[in-house]
Every structure is written in C-alpha cells, then in structure tokens.
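Input record (one chain):
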Amino acid sequence: MYKIMLIEDDAQLCELVKENLERYGYEVELPVHFSKIDEEFAQINPDLVLLDINLPYYDGYYLCRSFRQRSTVPILMISARSQEMEQIMVIELGADDFITKPFTFDMLHTKIKATLRRVYGEYSAKEEDQHCTGSLCLDKKTLMLEYEGSRAELSKNEYKLMKKLMENKGTFVSREELIEEVWDAVTFVDDNTLTVNMTRIKQTLAKLGLSQVIKSKRGVGYMLETPEGNVHA
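The corresponding structure, as predicted from the sequence alone:
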C-alpha cells in the first residue's frame, strides 16, 4: 500500500481527496500542525506528496525545496495558481508535476498512478542502477553524474533528461520526446520548462569539464555528442 502525504489547508477538499484515495487502497496522511510539517514529513516518510502552494506558516515553495533537500520522494503540486512561471518555478524546485485547481478526482488519480508507476513500478524496475557513456556515468540511486572523478548531483527531472540523451547519444532527440520522458503529458508542459532544465544540465556538464557536448538544433531537438570511448570537452 502506497502512503500519500496530503498537505492542503482546505479541510473540505482534504476530506474529499482522502476519502477517494483510500477507496482505491492508498494510505493517506494529513499534517496535524502546519508549523511542523518538516518534522511530520520525516515521521510519515511518504511514498508520494500532494502539496498545495498557499499554506499557513510555510508555503509550498519552501516545503518543496525543503523536502527535496532530504528526499527524492515524488511531489505533485496542487494549486489554483495557473501562471506559467509559477508552474516552472515549482518544477525547478524539484516537484514532479503540477495539477491546477479545480481538478477532477480522475485526473488526480491518473497523475498519481503514472508517477508511482514511473518511480516505483514496472518502468523503474527495468532500469539499471548506473548508465555510462564512455567515462560519463549516471547513477539512478544517487542522481549523481560522474566524469573522470568529478561528480555533480542532478534533480530527478534532469536525471531523466540526461539518461534519455545518453541512451540516444550521437542522435537528436526531439523536444516532444524529452518532455514526454519526464512529464508524461506533452500538452501540459511549456517548452520553456524543458529549456530551463536543459540549460541547467549544460551548466552541470560544464562544471565537470564537459562544455558544449549537448547540441541543440531549432525544430529538431537536442543531441549528446560523445564518442564511444572517453568523453572529451
């Protein structure tokens, strides 16, 4: 049974979501004190977090950043805020997806199932713990990117994008394929979100000594240029 932590200050919405999720076999935990959510998060140790943005004491931005500093647990943001930049911001802070209020329970449940399947289910079970291209290696368990003794940590979304590029090294991967690899719903995520994530990956590679190994071509996509042997900047 998956344990979901629902952090939402609308009591009526909480009860409605909790009741429906429990009907489908999930264990749902609600915070007791909004001033101590960090502590309760550690005690509950959830498999997935549903997190509102507007909350008493600490907003969802702060909590998302705080959770991500200590855990790779999937985080789905739920908020009435629908501005594009706000959605980009929470994804940049480490959230896995964004659900705009009002939403239907079917949509919420579909997002939860897709996220759990991707993180814990059949898809994740088939992945190897480490994927390497020459001397460039990506570790699934730690989300670390390593090159010739230097290491840097990626966010969960950056890890998925980097893995997709490494699996298709030497060929262009379309923007649509990359968005679908990370966020499932192509129509939900704006192109700017992908651009921001790719820029961060390029910066991380540069810190490892690998500048300009990711090429982009307008209307085509992104490509990781690496020979079969060692990767050279």
